[in-house]
């Protein structure tokens, strides 16, 4: 499916476009290539209206976070929370980190409940799957059938914990983790009532069809990460023995419109299901990347691309 003038994107009033620190290779507050105010100013100038939290603390916490966002008129789209769902003891040890994240998200200003922050629940990385992410899949690395009930129960408990704090979570399937493929996402949604974060790029490199996923998951989609991906780059890295870190470094997640993901088709499908909420542009960049001007130019180009598809 390709977007035409007769196939509208979700109405502008129903969505707001955000960006994310991961687009700048920011995975830890003390390793950021630019000050958070510099990042926010550049994204505001490019036409974005919100930001993902990135690593907790990078944008600040409490009242300081609110002031920083208010200065540029941004909302907080949400943020990643890493939990060891496959490990009962590890999961219990990780719950204080979830609570700390909920404290941060709960302090962010919200002017419309459709654009409240979404705690983005995700599995911790699996080293074996990180080394061999996406297609071709190694079935021997998949979560065993007997482990799924406990895994899903812990996801449900984390989701309920978020809701007790007044925040609706989403689960983020992701390359290199126990929930990577569309089929693994289906299984988790069957066993829980958690909402899902549709990440177009990760699903594409895992062999899935993001447009079909919109129609299959429908109202369960409560967050969208708009990401393009280059299957050729992914295949080159895999053939050379590289893993997900090398895929990212090789440009596996590329500028919107430059890869194989049918972004117009995804937007049209989201319009058909009446999606309302954040569209977070994520272009996963290598940690430590320092060419700030080039990164800002890429994110301006991504915003212009979406503007051309009707997302004002």
Description:
The protein has 312 residues and is an alpha/beta fold. It has a domain at 57-66 and 75-276: TIM Barrel (Alpha-Beta Barrel), CATH 3.20.20. 42% of the residues lie in helices and 13% in strands. It has twelve helices and eight strands. It has helices at 36-46, 62-72, 88-106, 127-131, 148-164, 182-191, 200-205, 210-217, 231-239, 244-249, 263-273, 292-308; strands at 15-19, 50-52, 75-83, 118-123, 170-171, 195-199, 221-226, 277-281. An eight-stranded parallel barrel has the order 1-2-3-4-5-6-7-8, surrounded by five helices. Helix 1 (36-46) links the parallel strand 1 and strand 2. Helix 8 (210-217) packs parallel to helix 11.
How would you concisely characterize the structure shown here?
By secondary structure, the protein is α/β, with parallel strands linked by helices. 42% of the residues lie in helices and 13% in strands. The protein has a domain at 57-66 and 75-276: TIM Barrel.
The helicity comes to 40-55%
CATH class of the domain at 57-66 and 75-276: Alpha Beta
What Rg is obtained from the alpha carbons, in whole angstroms? 18 Å
The CATH architecture term of the domain at 57-66 and 75-276 is Alpha-Beta Barrel
Q: Please give the number of β-strands.
A: 8
CATH homologous superfamily of the domain at 57-66 and 75-276, by name? Divalent-metal-dependent TIM barrel enzymes
List strands and helices in order, with pairings.
Blueprint: E1 15-19, H1 36-46, E2 50-52, H2 62-72, E3 75-83, H3 88-106, E4 118-123, H4 127-131, H5 148-164, E5 170-171, H6 182-191, E6 195-199, H7 200-205, H8 210-217, E7 221-226, H9 231-239, H10 244-249, H11 263-273, E8 277-281, H12 292-308
Parallel strand pairs: 1-2, 1-8, 2-3, 3-4, 4-5, 5-6, 6-7, 7-8
Helix pairs in contact: 1-12, 3-5, 8-11
